[in-house]
Design brief:
The chain has 173 residues and is mainly α. The chain has 6 helices and no strands.
């Protein structure tokens, strides 16, 4: 009975907003933990993949408030934006996956640093900067061989589908 109520709740706008905020918070916590605890420096594409999670937390909190107020139009718009946020993250993570797997070339110059000052200053900054390349896999699942970008693409694609189901389930405003 409790499981059935939980599943019913998850397929409401409030359930979507609450679960996506929690999932986004978990994903950001995992990314920051891998960076600051385990020393995995993020590449530029890794950093781009964090932006939609932060947006999703904001959209989810606003959407939850709108849903609690019974604003049908605002609720549907928030669910739509939430879905688009995860669709964009699916695209970014899929592109990153292709770069890691050498299916295509990554972004040119996306990690160019500060080039001001003397030659010695520039060289010192380059030598002290953490090296994180988009076309290298810093960590892969030992069982399936999937990278963090692979898992992110899968997770965001599933969350996008979840958002789409809720969006099309809502009545037209």
């Amino acid at each position: 009975m409790a499981v059935q109520r939980l599943i019913s709740f998850l397929f409401t706008p409030s359930g979507l907003f609450a679960s996506v905020v929690l999932l986004s918070f978990f994903a950001m916590s995992a990314a920051l933990t891998s960076q600051y605890v385990f020393g995995l420096s993020p590449c530029p594409l890794c950093l781009y993949q964090r932006i939609p999670y932060v947006l999703a937390i904001f959209i989810g909190l606003v959407g939850y408030v709108l849903d609690q107020k019974g604003t049908t139009k605002g609720r549907k718009i928030a669910v739509g934006f939430m879905g688009l946020t995860f669709l964009s993250n699916t695209v970014i993570a899929s592109f990153h996956t292709g770069v890691e797997r050498k299916w295509w070339k990554g972004l040119e110059g996306c990690s160019a640093g500060d080039m001001s000052g003397s030659l010695e200053d520039i060289l010192a900054r380059i030598e002290s900067a953490p090296v994180a390349r988009c076309d290298e896999i810093p960590w892969a699942d030992p069982i399936l061989g999937l990278s963090m970008a692979n898992y992110n693409a899968i997770a965001c694609g599933l969350i996008f589908i979840y958002c789409a189901v809720i969006f099309f389930k809502l009545p037209k405003y």
